[in-house]
Structure formats: C-alpha cells, structure tokens
Amino acid sequence: MEKVSVSFTLNGEPVTIEVPTTWNLLKVLRECFELNGAKEGCGVGECGCCTVIVDGDAVNSCIYPIPEIEGRSVLSVEGISGTDGGLHPLQKAFLENNAVQCGFCTSGMIMSAKALLDKNPEPTEDEIRTGISGNFCRCTGYVQIVEAIEMAAKNKEGNF
Amino acid sequence: MIDYEYKIPADLHEVFTLLKEYGEKATLVAGGTDVMVKIRNTRKAPEVLISLRRLEDLRYIRKNGGYRIGGLTTHRMLELSNLVRTELSALHDAASQVGSVQVRNVATLGGNICNAAPSADTAAPLLVLDAAVVLEGPGGRRRVPIAEFFKGTYRTVKEPDEVLIEFDIPEKMGAFGSAYWKHSRRKAMELPLIGIAVSVKLSEANEIEDSRIALTVAAPTPIRAYLAEDFLRGKPFTDQVLKEAGEIASSSECCTLRTSLRCEAWYREDMIKIFVPRMAKLAAERIKSR
Amino acid sequence: MSEYLYVGKSTPRTIETDKVTGRAVYISDLRRPGMLFGKILYSRYAHAKIKGIDTSKAEKLQGVRAVLTGRDIPEVRVGFLKDQTVLKKDVVRQFRDEVAAVAATSPEIAEEALGLIEVEYEELPAVFDPIEAMKEDAPLVHEIDARGRPVRSNILPLPWKFSAGDIEQGRKDSAYIAKDNVRTTWVNQCCMGTSGCVAEFDMNNNLTLYSQTNVPFLGKQRIVEYLRNIGLKGSRVRVVNPIVGGSFGTKLDTDIYEFIAVQLALRTRKPVKILFTREEEFRALPPRQPAIFEIEQGCDKEGKLTFRKVEAILDNGAYTSWGATTPSVMMMPISSLYRVPNVSFNATCVYTNNIYCQAMRGYGNPQATFAVETSMDSLAEEAGIDPAELRLINCNKPGELTPMRLKITTCPLDRCIKTVQEKINWKEKRGKRNGRGIGMASLIHVAGGARVYKSDGHGIMVKVDQNGNVDVLESGTDQGQGSPTVISQMVAEALGFRPEDVSITLGDTALCLWDAGTHASRHTFMAGNAAIRACDKAKKQILEMAVEHMPEIVEYKLKRKERKDPDFQMPDLDYSLISEPDKLDIKDRYIFPKNQPEHPYFRMEVSEVLTRGLHVGTGESKVVVGEAFYDPPTEMLDREMKGNYSCTYAFGTTAVEVEVDRETGEVKILNLFAAHDVGRAMNPTLVKGQIYGAAYMGVGYGLTEQLQLRNGRVMNPNFRDYKMLTAKDVVPVVPLVIEEPDADGPFGAKGIGEPGLVPTAPAIANAIYDAIGVRITDLPITAEKVLVALKKKAGEQS
Predict the structure, then answer these.
(1) Residue C745 falls within a domain, yes or no?
(2) How far is CA A159 from CA A90, C19, C95, C680, C795, in A?
(3) Which of A134-138, B41-45, B175-179, C527-531 comes out lowest in average pLDDT?
(4) Same structural domain for residues C119 and C199?
C-alpha cells in the first residue's frame, strides 16, 4: 500500500499523520483521531453526513482525498464548541428548536450551516436551504433545521 | 484492494512531467467529485492519480473583451459570480444547480466538461455561449470549439497528455441573453432528466438575430440543436415560432432520445418542446432587464 | 393555564447534547477490543440453485478470519413464517439472498474476500408480478414450507379476511357507488444511519448484541431461540441499543445480517461488526410493502356511507417479514375511518422473487388510507357532494364502536376537518380546475399501543439518589423521536422533580424491564403511563421518608438559627401538617405540606430529605426505587380479526393546495395544513417535529419516492436516483396541533409518531384532481403519470 504523510491543522491544532494514499478525509478523522461526528451516510458525496469545513468551505469529507489536505485547515463539529466547552450558537439552536432527531445528519448539517453563516451572516431562507441542500435529513422535513439556523444567525453570541 | 499513487504537482510544468512519466497509467483529477466516486463505485482505480487542485492560478473568471474562465474554476465560484449571473446567465443557471454546495465547492468546470457525461449540466450553457476549450499539451496550446470537444459518452478530443486550461467565450456572446433549464425531480442533488439551454439575440424589431440551443441527456454527448437554431434565425420572436423551434429541437433530426430508468424518451421529447420556448423567453427577458 | 409544570412545555433536547457535538455513539462509531468486520455476499440471481461455492481463495487472503456459507452453519429457519435460513445453502430466491459471509480485520479486506468467493448458480424461472405469481403455472418461490411439506402455490398461508355487516345490503342501500383501482410501490425507509450491529460472545457463550432494534426484548428472544436451535442451549443474550440513526420500521424485525454477525462472532470468538453501505441499505433492507387495491364504496342519497369493499394483493417478496402483517393495520382505516356499517376486506400476500418487505412508518396504513381516501373523493364526485362535507357526514364520533370493534374514545376528527378546511380556504378555492387545486384526506391510527403480541406491556424503573438525581431505566428505544426529553418531562411531572434532574437509560435488556417495542406510535403513551405508576411508588417512598425525617431536619435548622441569632424566637410549629405521607406533596423538586405549600419551615428541597433518608449508615437504610409494568386494557384481534387493539386512536386531517403544470406534469405543493389529534402535546415543539417530518416523508411517498425494481433487482440503490426530498424542495407544512386530552393517555397524550405521513399522499392526489380533473391512483404521482392522464383526458374529450 502506498502511504502518504500529511500535515494539516485540525480544529486549530497542527497534526501530522501517515496513512494509505487511498484514504479519504472522513476515514482519517474517524480512524486516526476518533472524531466520530462526521459520518458516512453514503460514501459517495450524496448525503452530506460527512460534511466538514476545509479552508472555510463545506466539503464532503468522504470523497476528499487525504493527500489534498496537506497544509490545509480542517474544522469538524468537534472543533466548533467554545474552548470553555460551551456550545456553539448553532448547536444550542439545534437542540432548542428540535432540529435534531435521530442526529445522524446533525454534525454535517451544522457544519454546512456554519460554513454558510461564516460567509453570509444574514442569509435568507432560500440561501439557508441552498446551503444545506446537500445534507439529507429523513427525520425533520428540514423546517426546524432552517428555523434553528435562522435563530443562530439572529443570536450571534458566539463566533461564526 | 484499491491502491494508487496520488501526485500533487505544484504547477503545470510538473503536471506535464508526471503525465509524460506515467502515460496511460495516470488519470487527472480536478475536484475529484467524479473520479473519487467512480473509484469507490467500481472498486477499480488507475495506478496514478495526478491532482490539479494546487493549480490555483487556473481558477478565475475574467472579462476583458471576451470572457475567460479558468479550467479549475469551481461551480461555486461561478454560482457566486455577479458577472456570470448577469452576462452568462445560462452558465450560472447550470453551475448553481450541480449537486450540492459541498460538491460545487470542489467540483470544477473543467472537470465537469472533461468527464463528458451526456448529462453534464455546464456543457449546454457553454455550447450556447460558443465557448472554446483551450487545451495545453507538450506541443503547446490549442483551441477547440466546445461543439467539437465531445467525441462520445465520457470521451473527448482532449489527449491524455493535455490539460484543460480555460474556456473562452467570445465578446459578442455578451449581447445574448441565455438561460438553462435543468429538468429534474427535485431541486438539488440531481442529474438532469433533460437539460435545455437557449441563448438569443433579438433585434430592435423583436426578431431573432441569432440563437443557440443546446441539450443535455438528448444524445450520447451534450449537443447543439442546429436545425432549430437555423429555423429561428431571422424569425419574429413569437410563441408560434418558439413552439416550432421546440418541435424541431426535440425531433430525431436533432437528438437521439432514449428511455432509461430515470426517464422515458417521450417525456424527454415533451420537455424539450416545452422548455425551448420557455428558456428562449427567459433569455430574452434577461437581456431586456440587464 | 395548564395544571402541569413540565408536560406541555417545549423543553429543549438538552438531554441529547451529544448529538450536536459529535460525541453520540452510533453503531458506526462503536468499537470493541479486537473487533472484526463482517461482510455479506448476496445472490447474483433472483432465483437460482446454488451448485457450488468455493471459498478457498477468500480463506487464504491475509486478514480474513472466517468465511461462512450455508454449508458451514446449522440450517435453522428464522423469520416471521420461518421461511428462510440465515445463509442460503441450496436455493436463492431474491437478489438480496445471503450466500456467504466473511469476517476480517478490516472492512476493506472483508470486501475483497467477498470478491474471491466463487459461486456456481443454475438459474431458475422467476416471478416478479404478484398477480402472475398467483397463477397456477407460475414458478414456485418456495417448494416446501417451514415444516417441510410441499407447497403448491405462491399465496401465503396467511389469509386476511375481515367482514362486518352485509355488503350486498349495503350495495342495495346505496344511491351512489365509486370503484377505484389503487397501487402503491416499494419505498425505502432511508434512515440516515445505515444498518449494522456488533455481536460479541464471552467465554461462557453469552452473547452481547449491540443492535439498533426497536424491539430489544422481542429481538433478544429471537436470538435466544436461534442460539438454542443451533445448539447453544444455556447462552444468555443481552441486547444493547447504541444511539440509533433513524428507524421508520426497519428495526422491527431481526434482520438476517444480525444472525450472520452472531455466527461470525461465534466462529471467530471475536466481536464482529456488520455495517451496511448505503448501497446495501437500498438493496438488502426490506422496504415498505407494495399493495394493489380494488376498492368499492357507496353512500345513500344523504351521503351516508353504506358499504366499503376492499380486495388487496400484497407483493410479499421472497420471504415473510412484518410486511405480510400490514393488513392487520390496513384493516383499521378500511373498517373504521369514517362510519361505515358494512365492510369487507380481503388481503392476499403473495410470494415473488422480489425483495421481501417489512414495516415502514404507518405500517400498512398509508397504503390503505391512500385507497380509502382517494375513493372517498371519487364517491363524493359520484354523489355530487363536497368531499369535505362527505367526510363530515360520516365523521367518527366519541363513544363509537367500529365494525372492527375499535372503541373510539376521544375523537376530534370533525375539528381536524373543519380546521384545515378553514385554513386552506376550502370553499373559496375548491373546484376551479385552473391548474390549482385543493384536496384533503384524514386518518385513524392506533395511539394507545397496539396489541399484536399477548402483552402490549411496557416496563420502567425510576430510582432517586441522595443528590436528588433521578435515573430512569426505560425499556423502550429512541430512534430519534425525542423520547428521552419527553420521558424526562413526564417523570419530572409525576415525581415532582425537574426534567434536568432526570437521566434516561434506554434499550438495554439487562438493565430495563420488558417492553413490546417502540413501534406503533406507542412510546410516549406507554412510557408515560408506566412512568406515572412507577413515579407514584417512588414518590410514596420519598414522602414516607419525609414523614420520618422532616421533623428532625426542621428542628435541626431551627436550633442552628437559634445558635446563630440570639433574638430568634422558636416558632410554634404544627407538625401534624407533615405527619402523614398523604399530607405532603412534591413539586418542582420541593417537598411541602399540601395544606400550606409555602410553609416557611416545612417547604424544603427534596434532596434534604433524601440525604437523611437514604442509606443513612445507622439503623434502617433505604433506596428509593419505583417500577411499573403498564399493560393497557386492550384486546388482541380475534379469529374474525376484530378487537380493540389500542387503548385510544388518533385522528387527523391534511389539506393540500397544489399547482400543476399542465405542460410538464409537475406538481408543486403550495400549502399543506396537517391537523392532528394528539390528546395533549407533551412537548409542542417535538410534536410539530413529528408532524413536519412525517408530512415531508408523505410528500415523498406521494410524489417522488420509489425503489425501482427490474426483474427483482433494485436499480436505484443510491440517493442520486432514489428521490428523497432535499431542503430545497420546500414543503410548506403547517402543523396544527389539536388538543383534546385523552383520559387513558398519560397527562392526556396520544401517540403521534406515524400519523403525519398517512393522509399526505391521498390529500395530494385529491388536490391534483381538483386542479386538473385527473385522478392518479398509482404512487408515486410522477410528472409523467400526470401528463399521460392529461393527454388521455384530452383525447377522450376531442
């Protein structure tokens, strides 16, 4: 197996790993760092459960080749809570507005929402829906998720 | 088990060196949204993947007379570009509907075109905008009109040792209004059942000076509907004329529609008939409101 | 103002904070020391003989720990009708048939090993259409039954025949009759978390199965029975739920992959995980049962229903799981949605070489209600009566005993109908035929359990510690509906604590008491009723403790005050206020005398009493623990398929406004009002969440979703081609929560997990008819079907 050494920033910390070239970012997050927030819902970039933020953009980590991560900055759901352990406004809003049911899509959904709000702090409903259109949810019908993102956008106590 | 080398050249020069070294064993990867998925689905991989992702200087949208769009420009860049939205509207329509934000953040225009799927959303707008594909290889650069770029399903005229550098859209196309309709069953995460792009230029007398019509999923490759375009040229911009253009575009003289699991041929035909006029009208509206 | 402090409030789901921080452990995240990964090889044919299997190459692959085929394990039959084995030895009958399984040190190696297994098949004639399969000369899917007796037909020995009253008399009494043919298709549940489990044996052959099941106790029993049948007589089984990524019916049966994981774990003596890929989830998980209905019903001149006759054919697929029992639920709307005196319902389940079917949200009700409610609109048109009016004329009423012997207690169906009628502006908008249209459909569903097993019971245990923290051992499961939050509210209410004092342990057969399973929208109803009873016991213990210890606590405090403040006057306290448990109560974590709740000395934090009363070190120490097993006073269906199988029933009505593009056939939903009878909403935000989610799933069922099968093979095993709706596909659902507290429900609650889905598709179909005058009776209502129907109508007219 070809192996590759990759150095990058993960949730604010510099890290280096050596893994098979064929691994993707999702597998690295889960296997090397036991960060289980990003999930494999389909493995082919069609469901969004694996969404993380790379250099500010939401991406499907399941189809992101690990060699490409060299020198980049990766943010996963585990990295968005405050250093004091406090929840991110999106996390709070999701709990408060029942935007979480089974929760399997939640990490990816929150990361898509965060990537959106980071660039567009006051999105319209349509922009929110576009922002999460690559994140399937089977439980909620999306309404309370969209509302939660609107709530979080209005209630900017934290950093987006 | 799947195994491959993954090369990340820093510039074009290195790309060509690697292409020369590995020859047919290598596959170029841009955003990877087609290649990585294909590897996973087929459980087969080329021996070497050569990534273009670090060629940051091939990501641009410029207007200088004509329009130049770098081969590695992402769909998301096109989606967020005001210039593309107002002056190359059909391309904006298409780019902003590919997959999801996550996909559009990495998937590139060059990748979408080189993958050469019959359903490539961005191909239809590039066809109606008369884009030329600029390729660079060991022998230098060459330009290929997009209408001559596709050789067959998943096949193009690009040589294995060439890289798609940019798309050039002639200045005169800025005077055209354009629109693309992706007909699908839902509003995101879709492939088109049929895709219809139309560009038009109207005279002051509301006659059709010039027009292009392109279709995806209507043939083994994205295609132009030349007969329908010829029909339109010089005609008044009326419902009846547009309706007839739709009928010509949907006929077997223009396309080879087929029934697949996703959609039946008759429905694709019907939708071409409906959306050639609708898109022509939208394109005309856009040019007026500009 | 509600008399309750916590139920009825939209308590946030803080109890599930792990789900927003990435810490929640789903089956995909679960690791056990030394764990191996299992993969399954499926059939390459819809129907074939297995001539031979060569596993030698796979066995030699580095990292492979076990390769099993039907020849390597005892041939023990499993499933609802015991019509299949775990690994198929001689014959495969569907593409998803499990032929071999591998355990290896990584999923990739296991996958590669599958590719090295060589199977030689001899293809057999197959049958894919249930109607074809019923013919005498059709290829037989099964040659013998579970007892080894020869089988002559593909029709299951599971006749569903229901009849009440006299159909012929009903027909004679009818002024108008409508007859429709209705079809529904396969739909995948699409849980975002794919299926999986981890099986682990200890050295004494005791098994722990980490399973996503929503019937931990029935699931455990199936595994115990299986182990017994393969010769492991003394094995104990513990079933533990991880966090579950959605269920919607998929976790009702014990799936074959779970038995395979058990076999691989047994063979390797290592924990073995099987985790489905999305493709497997589509190809190898039983979808919703498709059905073909012929429905006929009539009414008299006034619009009163006279009879309803329904014939159903169900494509069972190759084996029998819960899909085959969906007629037991179909029977409910067919016999009891609206008042109809004469009813006949026959359902025939037929084996085919298609994928076998299971339960999905609503369990047969969505299929049957689609038939009943589209037919109601047909009948309304025949009779020239407004469809809403026809529904109101025949509306169910409280106190009614339906032909199926369902006892209707609370029933605000008329309110539901009138509410959506008003919201959607029914009178104004109906009947325009201008491309915009409105339609409605109602439902009846079990909302107080469903007695499908001898016991429909539910156990709960409530413990209180000296810190005032409450541990609830809850025998149900949570697949995302939010039970932990709602149960914490109900326990807090019943015990007099606060929701944040309560922590919940769910889904562990070693810790929790027995339960029939978290299905049939029963969890809130059952858990609440059990919790009220268990909390009553625990509370009594605390109050007894209070009677014993409060005087000394009060005296101690007074003495301390006296010491600190020389001017303090010792009050003359009436200790009779706290001399009996009955004189005391607990609310919001405070204990107080009922007659003087704000008493300055006798009102105190309950933890003060608990600190004294629990395990005190000297004398008699105690624990506070209350348990209850609530089994509602309901009946199983008798031989005539009659009986009051739920303690209460939920009603609801959905009204939809659509816009149909006559040129493209596309249907856009402009408005969707869903009025649901929930008894009392325990947590309004969560109730709305159930309605939003179910209605959206119903729109998918109505318009876009379809597992496409060609000759038994699933052709669209991915999210690209399986058209589940995205956030961009706006479904403008407005949930309307209709509250009429139910006397049998805990704090008045009824179940609401499934109902939102049930009337959605027929409401859409009826709205489409109103918009363009064509009735589509075949789900999903694709643009193509709309266009074909429009063209046909235009052809007929010209």
Answers:
(1) yes
(2) 10, 21, 51, 39, 62
(3) B41-45
(4) yes
Asked whether the beta carbons of residue B261 and residue C725 sit closer than 8 angstroms, the reply is: no
Q: What is residue C701's DSSP assignment?
A: I
Taken in order of first residue, the domains within chain A and their CATH numbers are 3-79 (3.10.20.30), 89-154 (1.10.150.120)
Interface of B with A (CB under 8 A): 1-6, 8, 29, 32-33, 36-37, 40-41, 45, 49, 51, 53, 76, 99-103, 105-106, 187-189
Range of the domain at C111: 31-124+195-275
Give A-chain residues touching C718 at CB under 8 angstroms: 42, 44, 46
Closest-CA residue to B197 (of B133, B144, B263, B131)? B131
User: What's the structural domain count of chain C?
Assistant: 3
Q: What is the CATH number of domain B5-51?
A: 3.30.43.10
Amino acid in the structure at residue B282: L
Instruction: For chain B, count helices (H), then strands (E).
Output: 11, 14
- Environment class of residue C660 by beta-carbon count within 10 Å: exposed (0-12), middle (13-18) or buried (19+)? buried
Q: Is residue C163 classed as helix, strand or coil in its secondary structure?
A: strand
- For residue A150, give the 3-state DSSP assignment: helix
Best mutation site among B101, B103, B104, B108 for testing chain A: the one with the most A CBs within 10 Å? Answer: B101
Within-domain flag for C282? no
Q: What pLDDT, on a 0 to 100 scale, did the predictor assign at position A158?
A: 45
Among C275, C304, C323, which residue terminates a domain?
C275
Residue type, B69: I
Given a contact cutoff of 8 angstroms between Cβ atoms, the answer to whether A78 and A35 are in contact is yes
Beta carbons of C133 and C351 less than 8 angstroms apart: yes
B175 backbone φψ class: left, alpha, beta (φ>0; ψ -120 to 50): alpha
pLDDT tens-digit profile of A115-159?
Answer: 999 999 999 999 999 999 999 999 999 999 999 999 999 986 544
Angle subtended at Cα C389 by Cα C384 and Cα C394, rounded to the nearest 5 degrees: 105
The two three-digit tokens of residue A18, written as one number:
């050596």
- Domain shared by C778 and C658, yes or no: yes
Sequence-distant (6+) residues with CB within 8 A of B141 are B134, B135, B165
Cβ B239 vs Cβ B222: under 8 Å: no
Q: What is the ipTM of this complex?
A: 0.97
Which pLDDT value is given to residue C736? 98
Q: Do the Cβ atoms of C409 and C744 come closer than 8 Å?
A: yes
Owner of token pair 């509206």: B285
Any idea which architecture B176-289 has in CATH?
A: 2-Layer Sandwich (3.30)
Quick check: A103 and C728 CB within 8 A?
Answer: no
Looking at the domain assignment, is residue C20 inside a domain?
Answer: no
Minimal CA separation from A103 to chain C, in Å: 5
In this prediction, residue C617 has a pLDDT band, given cuts at 50, 70 and 90, of low
Q: Which residues of C touch B259 (CB under 8 A)?
A: none
C161 occurs within a structural domain: no
Q: Give start-end residues of each CATH 3.30.390.50 domain in chain B.
A: 176-289
